[in-house]
């Protein structure tokens, strides 16, 4: 894979990219390979919806172990991008589900969904 300069990732007045994910840290995790980072972003964007669906399904039927497991997987995936907000939101879902708190997990899921929507937009800029 060829290393290249990162694409222009400036966001509008909604905020800067670092509030959503740390591009420099994410790039460092792939040894500066911007093309690899873009490929990872594309794969994440294709697959994260399945993990969100697993969380929603677990919440709907009260299967907190399934919620916890899916949130843990999602937490690891967003961690690859140094996406602090999404990571912390996934961790909140995982922890509340682990405590057996269905209502808390449902509230935490709402925050996760919002954080992932922002991350989706930012990572979409990586994939062109």
Separate helix tally: 5
Under CATH at level 1, the class stands as Mainly Alpha
Structural class, from helix and strand content?
A: mainly alpha
Please, how many domains? 1
Strand content: under 5%
Task: Report the sheet with the most strands, covering strand number, pairing sense and barrel closure.
Answer: none
Order of helices and strands: HHHHH
| Portion of residues within helices | over 70%
Write down how many β-strands occur, each being a DSSP E stretch of 2 or more residues. Answer: 0
Rg, rounded, reads 15 Å
CATH architecture: Up-down Bundle
Q: Mean pLDDT, as a whole number?
A: 88
Note the gap between the termini: 17 Å
Gross morphology is: elongated
CATH fold-level assignment: Four Helix Bundle (Hemerythrin (Met), subunit A)
Task: Give the low-pLDDT segments.
Answer: 1-15
Full CATH superfamily name: HPT domain
Walk me through the structure.
It is a single chain. By secondary structure, the protein is mostly helical. It has a single domain (18-127), classed as HPT domain (Four Helix Bundle (Hemerythrin (Met), subunit A), Up-down Bundle). Helices cover 72% and strands 0% of the residues. It has 5 helices and no strands. The chain has helices at residues 23-29, 34-61, 64-79, 84-98, 102-127. Helix 2 runs antiparallel to helix 3 (64-79), helix 2 packs antiparallel against helix 5 (102-127) and helix 4 (84-98) runs antiparallel to helix 5. The chain is elongated and about 40 Å long. Mean pLDDT is 88; it is low at 1-15.
């Amino acid at each position: 894979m060829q290393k290249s300069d990162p694409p222009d990732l400036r966001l509008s007045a909604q905020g800067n990219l670092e509030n959503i994910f740390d591009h420099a840290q994410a790039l460092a995790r792939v040894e500066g390979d911007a093309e690899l980072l873009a490929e990872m972003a594309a794969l994440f964007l294709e697959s994260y919806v399945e993990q969100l669906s697993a969380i929603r399904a677990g919440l709907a039927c009260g299967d907190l172990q399934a919620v916890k497991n899916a949130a843990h997987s999602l937490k690891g995936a967003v961690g690859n991008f140094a996406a602090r907000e999404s990571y912390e939101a996934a961790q909140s879902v995982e922890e509340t589900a682990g405590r057996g708190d269905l209502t808390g997990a449902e509230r935490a899921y709402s925050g996760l969904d919002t954080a992932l929507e922002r991350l989706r937009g930012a990572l979409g800029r990586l994939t062109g």
